[in-house]
Amino acid sequence: MITVAEARERLSTLYRRKLAAWSVRPFDATSPVALGLKPPTDRKAAADMPAVAAWLKQWSAVAVHGLQIDWEARRWPNTGTQSIPVRLAAQSPAALARFLNRGKEWELYRVRALRLQSLAPRDSEARDVFDPALARIIGKAAALPQQDFERVFHVLAWLTAHPDSGLYPRQLPVQGIDSKWLERHADIVRTLHVATGGDPGLGLLAPAKLYRVRFLDPRLAPVGMGELMASPDTLSRLDLSARTVLIVENLQTLLSLPELPGVVALHGGGYDVRWSAPIPWVAAANLLYWGDLDLDGLAILASLRSVRPDARSVMMDPSTLQRFAQLAVPHAKGLTRAAPSGLQPKEVEAYKLLRAQGGLRFEQERIPWDHALATLRTELGR
């Protein structure tokens, strides 16, 4: 015998799993959610009639609109004919939610789903794209305070009407939002905008990312500027003839570099290291990379080699790691990854050594500076 409490527990699991999908596309009486109630046999009923009577009383008290309980007459030799509940069927998600005492939650999900669906194209093919996207984020949309939900709706409505505005996020003419608000709610906004056929960038302009550059040879410095921050597009317009471009991973290392003839130094940007590859004067120069001597640093080097196979590394080899191992710290991230393609034999050896030692982080700044500069000058002189 399944009690009312047990039925609620079982159906709650299904409800939680299906809530998002149902709020977007509810089921109806043609495909109800049903649960068999496992009525007792004659023998079991005869063995414990008080329990059966309590069970019948429980189900007799259930009265929820849209919730159907099927009763059947059963003739038991020991107790005579009884009308017993055999099946519970919810005709709609709303009815199921009411039975589970979650009616307000369902109403919130459904009302917000309908509101957002009003922004979608009407044809069935478009809805087949939009509705699954809405189901993915409806939980987040339902969790928003009402004021923020209204802002999401109005931002989406504005973006739909102006798909290629060319504005910056702060310029959006929607009351109550700023760029920080858009960042916090980007997942909902972008998911639904793309699902209506919109641009993943929302048709908005993004400020160009700026990178730090140091001209270690004063003769290469544009208008005497030894250092600047600029976008790749701006840097591409410089007319330089650097012999070597040195990419370093950490800012403090970049700032500590002395004058070096024919050298321009760039801040790498981590896994964004390939940003400099299209710049003409970078492409024409020898390229030297000096990053952290850990699994991430070597993976970044491999990524750089995917666009600059000729890039050389410095102080990213086993001998450097073994010489200064006492300066490294434990770092177990990425231990399951195999050495990435693009590394040279000595670099692969360093990668395997790092894994064998349980993972280490050896930041480039930890190498004694006198040794680092001497090694760097030797490599630049090759």
UniProtKB/TrEMBL annotation:
Instruction: Cite the DUF3322 domain residue spans from the record.
Output: 5-192
What InterPro entries does the entry give? DUF3322, JetD_C, UCP028408
Taxonomically, the superkingdom here is Bacteria
Q: Which residues form the Wadjet protein JetD C-terminal domain?
A: 203-374
Q: What is this protein called?
A: DUF3322 and DUF2220 domain-containing protein
Can you name the source organism? Answer: Glutamicibacter arilaitensis
